[in-house]
Amino acid sequence: MKLGRLNHIGIATPSIQDSIAYYRDVMGATEIHEPFDMPSNGVKVCFVDTPGENGTTGTQIELIEPLGADSPIHGFLAKNPSGGQHHMCYEVPDIHVARAEFEAMGKRVLGDTRIGAHGTLVFFLLPRDMNGILTEIMETPKAGAGH
């Protein structure tokens, strides 16, 4: 498995609006997308762009807030009431090949491969198998797609 581009860092937050204010007012972020609901994943999402080279977008920050009582983020926020880093997400060219390679290495996948916030297929790897970090693997978005 070859390490792909770091697409985003997921930050769980009890309030997306408070986190938007933090990234805008304290960190100076100027590219903040509109928040949107992802009922299928139980979260509200907002992407904050960081600057990349030559005017491109660098690594994004994905703010995630629980959406509804069944949100998987509730457990994280119960342990970390102020929020914090939830996961790191890396791109791969082929999600199915990547999943097979991780599983062949004995890495445990959490749940099914599904559509993520960028509109591409994703899966998550168990933190115990990934140096203590919940790791999201996503198929590289097609040009002009997603957030």
UniProtKB/TrEMBL annotation:
EC numbers: 5.1.99.1
Domain VOC: 5-140
Molecular functions (GO terms): metal ion binding; methylmalonyl-CoA epimerase activity
GO annotation terms (biological process): L-methylmalonyl-CoA metabolic process
Swiss-Prot/TrEMBL keywords: Isomerase, Metal-binding
NCBIfam families xref list: metmalonyl_epim
Family according to the record: Belongs to the methylmalonyl-CoA epimerase family.
Name of the protein described by the UniProt record: Methylmalonyl-CoA/ethylmalonyl-CoA epimerase
Organism: Sphingobium subterraneum
